[in-house]
Amino acid sequence: MRYLLLFSFLFVNVFAKQHYILSTDIRERSDCLVPEPILDAIMSVERSMDRRVGYPYIIRINRKKDIRKAHRILKNYNYVVTKRDEAVIDCKNTRNCARITRQLVENKIRNIDMGAYGLNYVYREGWNYNLRVFYVNKRASLVTCKYLHELNNEFGWSWRTIGNYHNRHKRRNDLYVKKLKEYVIKQGYTDEI
Question: What is the pTM of this model?
Fold first, then answer.
């Protein structure tokens, strides 16, 4: 199995230090110390099964009881429900995604995952980003990195911490981490951190 020198270096020398505080002032990709394979794995695992990896115009409604309500609220908006999952909508473009997100939130549907990285609206509150950011992959990757840096600062670096990106409940976290590791290994990297 090939090892990516940068990947190994970052995990061993930076993230393995439990109390290493990472800057959350991330404005460029070079400010992000999260290895690219981890960001790629998150994007792959968070994707809609009906769209290619990295497709940014996706909103997932996470609470079952909100799905029908959301579709009623959005009846005059331009979007498509994905074939495999009525909880996932293709909002078609950045502007439309931001408008739909705003409409959902105004109607108290806040537990939604936004864009290719599946960033949850609930956790973005207080970050003061324009909603369009979540539907532009280059920008969303920086927000994802910022969130991972925050998690590292709170929990220390581990697969469990990376799993907290998705969910802090152990069972869901473990399933998510398993998928991330499978992706990382499939790409030819090590899953050791």
Answer: 0.84
